[in-house]
Design a protein that fits this description.
The complex is a heterodimer of chains A (260) and B (411). Helices cover 75% and strands 0% of the residues of chain A. Chain A is mainly α and 260 residues long. Classes of the chains: A mainly alpha (260), B alpha/beta (411).
């Protein structure tokens, strides 16, 4: 973990360069360009609003459902894009890995950095929605920063394992979209935590993303602090996972060039 | 500070072979795990040692040539030194910044422009952004791509991409440089530029490992040579000695091949005439294969003819060790008159003085009809000889041919 931080600082230019490359390459020869970063959560929000609010009448803790859904979706989209991009990061750069040495985790960090830009673009619309629904921000909004940090550490842990595994077993690439989708439905993105039945709560809270997504909503829309108890569990799970994952990644990266 | 910049100790690299190169799948792994848990016999994987017991060290400013047949382990060695892969056992150290002219342009992204790719590739190769900024104009100028620098490189020709790749890599200013076959990049003028760049780096006291199948490049640049064969050090030492042994080894295989080809070709040549033997002799008519430049060299061709071949022409062609033709001589139609069947004819060619530079050479000998249309017999690599003398890397000569000459200071 400390070594990753040290590498991230020492190789920040490399991480930045990879991120710039990914962003530039992603939107070259597209008519809409970076607006695509908006369209993904936006279209999901419309679908969710229709299905969960208009058809199924899922409660949303008194928040207008579109804002409710969008607030979860932009952060979830960042998470899921990081995971799908990060998992494929090694194989997508196989030509580089086979030929040049550089710390491989820079590729993972750059995926996150590039995703952060998309998150920023998507939150512009979020700002507009908050204005439209006359929701005022309070100091609690600062909770976003630690929440985002935990989310990113968690994502780093996940992709450290999945990207290394994908080098050996391309099955991961096939299984992952499905797993991410399942994970989303295990996370209060489309529904509030309050609808989770009592007997399922302990299991539910083992999902480290649950209190994070819930926390964003509280911090931004309700102006309250996250559910700290649940968050502590989430942080512990996250740290355990990521420290282990990085150790695994560090072992696995030694043979990437031979196997990829 | 010690002078050693590269040091390897018993470096070895093992790969697992199983259904091709390290191909494995979850199913495969689960099956193996299950078998192990059930204490059944697990089918052992086949191992392949790409490198074994590689030990050598290089001092600052040394230039080492790396030779060996394909698959000998040269690339694996360079990969280990450049830290792309880790050795299975053994240890190595490289002091200073390492640069690699291996698979140049590997980090290029086709959608990005030349400018963007220089920035990206430079950082991947370990330069800082500021450093790239300051060297940018020189990199572009060296690659000769000023006009196209803001074009996505997917529109570049492959030569242009290689030039850009070489240029970025050559400007990383490394202390240790690994070079793999890059002297074959681009057109003739760019190749000359690359050779100049290497010479420049040599002057700056860089430690260089040069891997090439072009032995002329090796003799031109290297003081010592490492010959790897089947993953092991076959020979390590002074350039001439190692290359000579290497060539002897390579030509031995080629000679066997040539003999086989000769047998097959002879059938097509109707067997009207046969070249039996070609030997090189010194001025005292004693068989000899090593000469000094300027010596008198006699080449005796033993032949036979089954029937009269009026006007038959003999030809001797000289090639360098790579098989590149350097020139040849033929007899006039009336030099040798085969008016009746010949059982044991000997024709002597005298080269006096022999004007080849240091190196090894082979001879092709043929007999054809006067119009050079029909070949009666052809013997490839019929003989081999070596010339000692100043190495091409010394200032006096380069290339294969020495010109008799005189300098006069007129004013």
């Amino acid at each position: 973990m400390f070594e990753t931080v040290r590498n991230a600082i020492r190789h920040h230019e490399l991480i930045l360069s990879f991120a710039v490359r990914d962003i530039k390459a992603r939107y070259k020869q597209t008519a809409l360009g970076v607006a695509w970063a908006l369209l993904q959560p936006l279209s999901m929000m419309l679908v969710f609003t229709l299905v969960f609010s208009v058809f199924a009448k899922v409660p949303s803790d008194g928040i207008p459902y579109p804002v409710f859904a969008y607030s979860g979706l932009i952060f979830w989209t960042f998470f899921s894009n990081t995971i799908s991009g990060g998992t494929l990061a090694m194989t997508a750069n196989s030509a580089l890995i086979r030929k040049i040495y550089f710390p491989r985790e820079t590729l993972l960090l750059s995926v996150m950095l590039a995703g952060l830009l998309d998150l920023l673009v998507a939150s512009l619309l979020f700002g507009a929605m908050l204005l439209y629904y006359k929701i005022t921000l309070t100091a609690a909004v600062l909770w976003i920063l630690p929440l985002l940090l935990v989310q990113m550490i968690l994502a780093l842990g996940v992709i450290s394992i999945t990207s290394a595994a994908h080098v050996n077993f391309r099955d991961i690439g096939h299984a992952l979209p499905l797993l991410v989708q399942l994970w989303m439905f295990a996370t209060p993105v489309a529904y509030p935590t309050s609808v989770v039945p009592h007997w399922l709560k302990p299991l539910f809270l083992l999902n480290p993303m649950a209190p994070i997504i819930d926390g964003y909503r509280r911090a931004i829309i309700l102006g309250t602090r996250p559910d700290l108890e649940a968050l502590v569990v989430s942080v512990l799970v996250t740290l355990t996972l990521t420290v282990t994952a990085l150790a695994i990644f560090r072992r696995a990266e030694r043979t990437f060039a031979d196997v990829i | 500070m010690s002078d050693i910049t590269i040091e390897l100790n018993n470096v070895a690299k093992r790969y697992w072979l199983r259904r091709g190169w390290y191909v494995t799948s979850i199913r495969d792994e689960v099956e193996r795990l299950a078998a192990r848990l059930l204490r059944r016999q697990v089918e052992p994987r086949e191992e392949f040692w790409a490198l074994r017991d590689i030990t050598f060290s290089l001092k600052r400013g040394e230039v080492l040539g790396l030779v060996g047949p394909n698959g000998a382990g040269k690339s694996t060695l360079l990969k280990i030194l450049s830290r792309v892969t880790v050795p299975t056992s053994g240890s190595f150290v490289v002091h200073g910044r390492l640069g690699a002219l291996i698979e140049i342009g590997a980090g290029f992204h086709p959608e990005l422009t030349g400018r963007e790719n220089i920035a990206l590739n430079g950082v991947i190769l370990g330069m800082s952004r500021r450093e790239i900024q300051s060297k940018f104009d020189r990199i572009v100028a060296f690659a000769e791509l000023e006009r196209f620098i803001d074009t996505p490189i997917k529109h570049y020709s492959s030569g242009m991409q290689m030039r850009l790749g070489f240029s970025v890599a050559a400007h990383t200013d490394p202390d240790v440089l690994l070079i793999d076959e890059i002297l074959a990049v681009g057109d003739a003028s760019f190749q000359a530029k690359c050779a100049n760049k290497i010479a420049e780096l040599k002057e700056q006291d860089k430690t260089i490992i040069l891997c090439s199948h072009n032995l002329t490049n090796i003799t031109d640049h290297c003081k010592s040579v490492l010959w790897v064969d089947a993953g092991q050090v076959r020979m390590l030492g002074e350039t001439d000695a190692v290359l000579d042994a290497y060539l002897q080894h390579v030509t031995a295989a080629m000679n066997a091949e040539a003999e086989h080809a000769h047998q097959q070709e002879r059938a097509a040549f109707e067997g009207l005439a046969t070249i039996h033997d070609v030997v090189t002799l010194n001025a005292a008519e004693q068989s000899q294969t090593r000469f000094d430049r300027g010596d008198r060299v006699l080449i005796d061709i033993t032949y036979s003819a089954a029937q009269p071949l009026p006007g038959a022409v003999f030809g001797v062609a000289v090639q360098d060790i790579q098989g590149y033709a350097l020139g040849g001589v033929v007899t006039d139609p009336d030099t040798v008159k085969i008016t009746s069947p010949v059982e044991h004819g000997v024709l002597r060619l005298t080269l006096d003085p022999v004007l080849f530079s240091r190196g090894a050479y082979t001879l092709n000998v043929n007999i054809t009809d006067p119009k050079l249309k029909r070949t009666y017999d052809l013997k490839r690599r019929a003989a081999r000889f070596a010339i000692d003398g100043p190495r091409a890397a010394d200032r006096e000569t380069s290339g294969h041919v020495y010109y008799p000459h005189r300098w006069d200071s007129l004013r």
